[in-house]
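Good morning,

Attaching, inline, the backbone tokens for the sequence recovery test we're adding to the shared suite. The designed sequence is right after.
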């Protein structure tokens, strides 16, 4: 075979000059044609589009052509020429090598239009579909957009631990980490487990949030963000919850709640703009296939200011809606945690715009949030989005040691577990704020997909940890 280095299909499809000899490698999407000429759609994942390979049947061994079936991996050398078809160019094959065959009787991705449910069962192969190619390229792009946003603003990427002994959110939804022999657990006379001999010498779990450690970092580096996997053993089988999801958590010294809201709004807009600027081919595909208003919605979010509203006002609006005949599954009253249906009513029906809800009742929020003077509410902020509900949760933090310790005690957070966290309030405390964005919720929004299982390569949900 002639020696030419491989070019990615994304580059080939962009080229303006038609170089005579090129080499493309990829997976066959379809092969059609007649006894004289075959057309192969070849995709290598570098972009949504496949490149057309034109094969003059007379020039090739019949045995080789037979092996070129949907799913097979091939290397093609030939001339890149201008195309009469939809694309600018195509390859007229001179040599074809079959790198890996795919038995047509067993390769599961034969026809187009498999359901998303079926594709979840073959999550190891679904990246080969147009849909998951597009979603995964966008997932990458959103990660880059996130780093770009914070880096350019002087934030430092901070790595909080995955294994931890503290429950940041205090919601008791942690996965335990242990090397103890579960078949032979020793309990003391009170029936409690003794962790002294466990790997860490104490009860340890997978983190639900890197916030507490990010706060330590903000109180020294000024502005930081974490971006990593977080884990929640909440048994909620919904299209918006995963047991393992990625979270981005910025934390900024000296920021108060207003600046925290500005940061959250700028941040989401930056990511949305990045998608529109860098992912248009994939976006257009997802728009046409799954959500005809996707691109319009992204542009809308970019152009409009988010509504900012206290929780108390939000509840009034919801109560009025109920009085006017609106039916919700869950009751709404001051003090209730908002359900997704309430959040979506405010965003999609009432304001028709993203909403930042602030100043929630302290009972339904975590111990670390700054307490307002009314004694009832805390300086929390949730960013609520169309189709998603809560996309960001954050707050200004309680910087006063006494207030923080009292609240931790009231909420049953043991002081011995957070002594190091309390030290930030003991030594050089300062106002500071931060928030957490669920990376997969952002992806739901920018891809228009409707189930969170379809925006992460291998979803972890109750009773499901395959692959
Ligand atoms: O509102 P949450 O629980 O806030 C925190 O964890 C804070 N420590 C964040 C902070 O202030 N630094 O979670 C933050 C976001 C939610 O708004 C949601 O987008 C996402 O994380 N999230 C989930 N995403 C997928 N699956 C789940 N089970 C999620 N739980 C939360
Ligand atoms: Mg929340």
């Amino acid at each position: 075979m002639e020696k030419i280095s491989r070019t990615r299909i994304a580059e080939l499809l962009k080229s303006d000059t038609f170089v005579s000899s090129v080499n493309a490698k990829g997976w066959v999407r379809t092969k059609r044609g007649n006894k004289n000429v075959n057309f192969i759609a070849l995709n290598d994942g570098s972009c949504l589009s496949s490149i057309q390979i034109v094969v003059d049947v007379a020039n090739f061994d019949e045995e080789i052509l037979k092996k070129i079936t949907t799913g097979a991996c091939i290397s093609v050398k030939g001339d890149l020429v201008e195309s009469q078809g939809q694309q600018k160019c195509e390859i007229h094959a001179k040599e074809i090598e079959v790198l890996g065959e795919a038995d047509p009787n067993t390769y599961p991705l034969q026809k187009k239009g498999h359901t998303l449910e079926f594709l979840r069962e073959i999550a190891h192969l679904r990246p080969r579909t147009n849909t998951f190619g597009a979603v995964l390229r966008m997932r990458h792009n959103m990660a880059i957009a996130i780093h770009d946003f914070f880096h350019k603003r002087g934030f430092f990427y901070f790595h909080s631990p995955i294994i931890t002994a503290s429950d940041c959110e205090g919601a008791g939804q942690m996965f335990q980490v242990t090397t103890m022999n579960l078949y032979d657990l020793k309990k003391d006379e009170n029936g409690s487990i003794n962790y002294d001999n466990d790997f860490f010498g104490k009860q340890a779990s997978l983190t639900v949030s890197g916030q507490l450690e990010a706060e330590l970092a903000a109180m020294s580096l000024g502005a930081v963000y974490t971006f990593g996997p977080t884990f929640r053993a909440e048994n909620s089988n919904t299209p918006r919850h995963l047991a393992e999801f990625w979270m981005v958590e910025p934390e900024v010294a000296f920021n108060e709640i207003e600046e925290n809201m500005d940061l959250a709004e700028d941040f989401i807009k930056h990511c949305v703009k990045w998608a529109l600027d860098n992912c248009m081919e994939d976006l257009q595909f997802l728009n046409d296939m799954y959500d005809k208003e996707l691109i319009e919605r992204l542009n809308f979010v970019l152009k409009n200011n988010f509504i900012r509203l206290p929780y108390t006002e939000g509840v009034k609006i919801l109560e009025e809606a109920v009085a006017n005949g609106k039916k919700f599954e869950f009751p709404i009253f001051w003090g209730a945690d908002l359900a997704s249906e309430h959040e979506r009513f405010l965003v999609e029906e009432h304001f028709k715009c993203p909403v930042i809800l602030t100043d929630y009742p302290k009972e339904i929020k975590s111990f670390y949030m700054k307490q307002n003077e009314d004694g009832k509410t805390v300086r929390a902020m949730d960013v609520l989005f169309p189709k998603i509900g809560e996309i960001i949760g954050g707050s200004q933090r309680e910087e006063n040691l006494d207030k923080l310790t009292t609240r931790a005690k009231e909420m049953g957070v043991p002081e011995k577990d957070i002594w190091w966290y309390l030290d930030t309030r003991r030594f050089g405390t300062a106002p500071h704020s931060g928030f957490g964005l669920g990376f997969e919720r952002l992806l739901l929004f920018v891809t228009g997909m409707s189930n969170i299982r379809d925006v992460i390569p291998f979803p972890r949900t109750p009773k499901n940890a395959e692959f």
